[in-house]
């Protein structure tokens, strides 16, 4: 196993990714420390979701290196995946299986013990106890997303990757999400999320990373002093249209 | 080893559970295979002589063609919910995902054969329900599942995957179909085990080679 610099929860260096002729990420570089809650901001197409997919090991970068808790993801795939929980755009659940059956399957793939207890505990955390035996197909988008969050939490990952987690959620679901974020912060674990709701993001995050055209435009803590800089950098991520001129 | 088997079983059991609810694959494979058998029964005037001559070929051709239908459907399920990516998030090697999916496909094709082979025996009036046939069927199904799982994964994101899968799958499984047809011919002709075993050896070699190659290529497909 290749272990490097365990001081960082995530260390991304010069990551480049392109799809066909389109360069999505250009030498992305940033780092997070354990216990930090960070948010990635940027316009549509800035490369936020691609970056998260690379960190979740669903897509390979063209070049660059990524360490997660000291593990090089190119060399220690299964170890890194055991440390990481992900909720991406789609809930990625088997719709003809119940929530409980889905959670049981993934608990088995993660080789967890006391699966029934874990399912009840995590379902409670995201408020889906009453829906555990419902087929995923019959659930609303919000409940499907909560079920996906429960799945990501099952193995107590050190790093949680969330791609626009609040999209399609009602205020109650968002409060469950906030509780999870708070629990992570207090237990010294790390969250990296993307969002378009910047005010909410700056409230809950310790750090903001603004991506423009595949570059890290700004990496900053979210203290009061820095908030205006972040807002300004974020507003610059949107390309000017003829209507703006 | 035990943990790996548990993961393979979990993925295979999941496919089986989904199949018991949807009944997409087993029904499609069985009905398709039976239709092919029926068409040949009407097209050829079956008697005791030509049944032994043509029966084994018709049986395995029908299972191979029907298998393609099922393999297409088995991976389409993973595409609908983007669930293949969910499997890829788990801390398991890509080989185990391959083995799990292959196990699921093996179960579907086996289930279809349990329906098709006895009906074939009745239609063609051939004594195929023998233990040697069980070995032939087992080895052929392993080979079909090994290659079928690989090619189904390769074509999962191709727009014309229903066309692409048979174009890739059928030429590659031809040696295995040959081995299955020849050994089934020996079975229906009541040949001795050493005669059947000549062809069984080819099936074994084919299965081992393609399981190893397919598992390796499957990893590359998922990473891309």
- How much of the sequence lies in strands of chain A comes to 15-25%
Distance between the termini of chain A: 54 Å
| Main sheet record of chain A | 6 strands, mixed
- State the CATH superfamily name of the largest domain in chain A: P-loop containing nucleotide triphosphate hydrolases
Count every helix of chain A, treating DSSP H or I runs of 4 or more residues as helices.
8
What is the class of the largest domain in chain A in the CATH system? Alpha Beta
Query: Which assembly state applies to the chains in this document?
Result: heterodimer
Mean pLDDT of chain A: 87
What level of helicity do the residues of chain A show? 25-40%
Task: Give the rounded overall mean pLDDT of chain B.
Answer: 89
Count of individual beta strands of chain B: 0
Looking at the overall shape, the CATH architecture of the largest domain in chain A is: 3-Layer(aba) Sandwich
Question: What's the main sheet of chain B like?
Answer: none
Number of strands of chain A: 10
Put simply, the count of helices of chain B is 8
Number of discrete domains of chain A: 2
Helix percent band of chain B: over 70%
Gyration radius of chain A, in Å: 18 Å
Structural account:
The complex is a heterodimer of chains A (245) and B (224). With 245 residues, chain A is of the alpha/beta class. Chain A folds into two domains: 1-45 and 63-75 and 158-245, 3-Layer(aba) Sandwich (Rossmann fold); 91-157, no CATH class. Chain A contains eight helices and ten strands. Chain A has helices at residues 48-55, 77-83, 99-109, 115-126, 141-153, 171-186, 198-204, 224-235; strands at residues 10-19, 22-32, 37-41, 63-68, 71-72, 84-87, 159-163, 190-194, 207-212, 215-221. In chain A, strands 6-7-8-3-9-10 form a six-stranded mixed beta sheet, sandwiched between helices. Chain A has a four-stranded antiparallel beta sheet with strand order 2-1-4-5, covered by helices on one side. In chain A, strand 1 (10-19) and strand 2 (22-32) form a beta hairpin. In chain A, helix 4 (115-126) packs across helix 5 (141-153). Chain B is mostly helical. Chain B has one domain (2-223). Chain B is 87% helix and 0% strand. Chain B has helices at residues 2-22, 25-43, 48-80, 83-89, 94-124, 131-154, 161-188, 193-223. In chain B, helix 5 (94-124) packs antiparallel against helix 8. Chain B is globular. The model of chain B has no long low-confidence stretch (mean pLDDT 89).
């Amino acid at each position: 196993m290749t272990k490097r610099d365990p001081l960082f929860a995530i260390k991304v260096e010069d990551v480049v990714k392109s799809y066909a002729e389109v360069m999505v990420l250009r030498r992305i570089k940033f780092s997070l420390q354990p216990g930090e809650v960070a948010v990635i901001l940027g316009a549509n197409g800035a490369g936020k979701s691609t970056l998260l997919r690379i960190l979740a090991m669903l897509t390979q970068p063209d070049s660059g290196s990524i360490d997660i808790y000291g593990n090089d993801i190119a060399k220690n795939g299964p170890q890194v995946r055991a440390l990481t929980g992900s909720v991406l755009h789609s809930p990625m659940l088997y719709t003809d299986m119940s929530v409980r059956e889905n959670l049981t399957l993934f608990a088995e793939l993660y080789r967890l013990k006391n699966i029934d207890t874990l399912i009840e505990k995590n379902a409670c955390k995201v408020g889906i106890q009453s829906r555990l035996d419902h087929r995923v197909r019959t659930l609303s988008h919000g409940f499907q997303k909560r079920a996906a969050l429960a799945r990501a939490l099952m193995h107590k990952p050190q790093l949680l990757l969330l791609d626009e987690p609040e999209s399609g959620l009602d205020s109650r679901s968002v409060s469950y999400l906030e509780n999870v974020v708070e629990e992570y912060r207090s237990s010294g674990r790390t969250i990296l999320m993307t969002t378009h709701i910047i005010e909410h993001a700056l409230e809950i995050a310790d750090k903001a990373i603004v991506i423009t055209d595949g570059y890290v435009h700004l990496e900053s803590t979210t203290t009061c002093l820095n908030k205006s800089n972040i807002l300004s950098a974020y507003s610059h991520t949107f390309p000017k249209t003829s209507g703006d001129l | 080893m035990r943990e790996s088997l548990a993961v393979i079983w979990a993925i295979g059991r999941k496919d089986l559970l989904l199949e018991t609810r949807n009944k997409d694959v087993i029904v499609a494979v069985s009905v398709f295979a039976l239709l092919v058998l029926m068409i040949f029964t009407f097209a050829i005037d079956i008697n005791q002589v030509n049944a032994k001559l043509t029966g084994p070929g018709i049986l395995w051709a029908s299972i191979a063609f029907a298998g393609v239908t099922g393999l297409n459907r088995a991976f389409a399920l993973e595409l609908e919910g983007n669930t293949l990516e969910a499997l890829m998030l788990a801390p398991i090697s890509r080989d185990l995902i391959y083995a799990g999916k292959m196990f699921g496909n093996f179960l579907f094709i086996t289930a279809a054969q349990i329906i098709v082979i006895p009906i074939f025996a009745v239609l063609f009036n051939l004594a195929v329900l023998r233990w040697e046939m069980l070995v032939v069927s087992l080895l052929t199904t392993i080979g079909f599942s090994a290659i079928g799982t690989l090619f189904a994964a390769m074509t999962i994101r191709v727009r014309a995957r229903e066309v692409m899968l048979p174009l890739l799958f059928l030429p590659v499984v031809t040696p295995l179909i040959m081995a299955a047809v020849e050994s089934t011919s020996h079975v229906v002709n009541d040949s001795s085990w050493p005669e059947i075993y000549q062809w069984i050896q080819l099936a074994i070699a084919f299965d081992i080679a393609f399981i190893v190659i397919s598992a390796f290529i499957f990893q590359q497909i998922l990473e891309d």
